[in-house]
Amino acid sequence: MNKIVVLGAGMVGRAIAIDLAKKHNVVSADICEESLKKLEAIENIKTIKSDLSNKKIVKKIIKDSDLVVNAAPGFMGFETLKTIIESGKDVVDIAFFPEDVLQLDDLAKKHKVTAIMDCGVAPGMSNAILGYHNTKMIVEDFEFYVGGLPQIRTLPFQYKAPFSPIDVIEEYIRPARFVENGKTVIKPALSDTELIEFENVGTLEAFNTDGLRSLIKTMKITNMKEKTLRYPGYIDQIKLLKDYGFFQTKEIEIDGKQIRPIDLTSKLLISKWKLEDDEPEFTIMKIIISGIENDKKVKYIYELFDKFDTKTQTSSMARTTGYACTSAVELVLNGNYTEKGLFPPEFVGAKNDCLKKMLAYQKDRNIIYKVSRKEN
Question: pLDDT value at position 265?
Fold first, then answer.
């Protein structure tokens, strides 16, 4: 059995550890005792309470591992990934940090490491699917819509998060990049709001976020965009908080103490946005790829609708993100993907039967991507 270290035991990190423990010996490391306790009784999982912001501690934990999963919070994700690579360990990453991860490619090559980044549901599977089709056709347009939402809508936000609010807020303050007529366009996050109908849910609200990430640099496609999905009305609440400075990252003084408004906001929202372990929720995604295939105008549509798993008590967002990650872990361990360097999922999807294997792996866990093809 391989030894795999999962750094981070949040809702997604736990799902990853539990899934991998079916075949491997797993070490789960986190500073939160409450999160680690939920893993203690599971066979093949060892828990370690540790400060993952400490480089020396991380190096010690992963020293004798065969592969590492970086599921640390986004604010420490880049430095954690860098430490893993410097330690010469293969890694699959879902930290989704704001830094440009592609700058670590040379470092990964130097240490002869296979590093797969951003390998969740989106970014992640959305990238892998595009990467695959980009080898089979001339892609002209790529767009996708994605969101994770609670089944029970509670005002004012009608939203719950499986991860830290500060990571969610980061999506709302980071400028959104997309491609229009072959040129990169930058707009504020939360812009270009539109209402879209979905079969299983009804009307949802879509808005710009910076979800294309590596695709901006790696894919030469005329038009590309990504939008986040929420219940209608959510965007107005978020814009109000943003306009009044609640997401401000510059410190302000209150009674002689310096604080960042974003930290206070995140702390206050934890109780309101906390997704309970048994709370019903769903993940929804629609990917549209249009272009020329065998001299014909074609359109591929991938649709995902996944719900909270009542049998395993696992959230849909943890499942769809976590099992995308573990499917990539198996690709590396089984020798299906052996390239050395740092690779976004679009490169993985373009390789051999990697996308097919990732989809099959997730289908075994009842995560099903419905695919349709239309000729114009």
Answer: 94
Whole-angstrom distance, CA of residue 101 vs CA of residue 342: 8
**44 and 143 fall within a common domain:** no
The rounded percent of the chain whose pLDDT value lies above 70 is: 99
Residues 160 and 301 in one domain: yes
Q: Name the pTM for this structure.
A: 0.94
Based on the number of CB atoms within 10 Å of its own CB, is 338 exposed (0-12), middle (13-18) or buried (19 or more)?
Answer: exposed
For residue 71, what is the domain's CATH number? Answer: 3.40.50.720
Say if 312 falls within a structural domain. Answer: no
Q: Give the orientation angle of helix 165-173 with respect to helix 234-243, to 10 degrees.
A: 80
Nearest to 141 by CA among 295, 349, 300: 300
Q: Are residues 184 and 43 in the same domain?
A: no
pLDDT higher than 80, residue 277: no
Residue pointed to by tokens 């959104």: 176
Q: Which of 351, 360, 355 lies closest to 300 in space, CA to CA?
A: 355
pLDDT digits (tens, 9 = 90+) for 144-199: 999 999 999 999 999 998 677 888 898 899 899 999 999 999 999 999 999 999 99
Q: 46 pLDDT band (50/70/90 cuts)?
A: very high
Tell me which residue range forms the domain holding 358: 3-120+318-367
Per-residue tokens: 272: 């309101």
Reference 289, options 298, 278, 280; nearest CA is 298
Please check whether residues 207 and 250 belong to one and the same domain. yes
Q: Are residues 79 and 12 in the same domain?
A: yes
Q: How many angstroms separate the CA atoms of 126 and 132, rounded?
A: 10
* Model confidence at 112: pLDDT above 90: yes
- Residue 185's pLDDT is 96
**Residue 255 tokens, joined:** 């009674």
| Region of poorest pLDDT, from 37-51, 165-179, 212-226, 314-328 | 165-179
What is the Cα–Cα distance from 131 to 352, expressed in whole angstroms? Answer: 11
Q: Do 104 and 129 fall into the same domain?
A: no
**CA nearest 346: which of 127, 200, 25, 26?**
127
Helix axes 55-62, 74-86, angle to 10 degrees: 60
The total number of structural domains in the chain stands at: 2
| Residue 134, domain CATH | 3.30.360.10
